[in-house]
Specification:
By secondary structure, the chain is an all-alpha fold. Helix content is about 65%, strand content about 0%. The radius of gyration is 12 Å and the shape is globular. The termini are far apart.
């Protein structure tokens, strides 16, 4: 399957996504950021919170740092 370059996602994180069967943005959108993050953790990888923010940013075509700030502000 052809890989798609995801916004905010580097080589290692893209490999992790591929390891869990996510190859395209459509695959990521279908799974959702939370499920994709959990799948990566369950596969034995050690993702950080920044990857979770990056997955959300990839889905919504936003910079991961903006997503991070927005989520942090909602938790206050």
């Amino acid at each position: 399957m052809k890989k798609t370059k995801f916004r905010n996602i580097g080589r290692v994180s893209e490999k992790w996504l591929n390891d869990v069967g996510i190859f395209t943005l459509k695959d990521l959108e279908k799974a959702g950021a939370e499920k994709a993050y959990k799948m990566i953790k369950d596969a034995g990888h050690n993702p950080t919170k920044n990857l979770f923010y990056a997955l959300i940013g990839a889905i919504y075509n936003e910079d991961w740092r903006i997503v991070s700030d927005t989520m942090k502000n909602k938790r206050k």
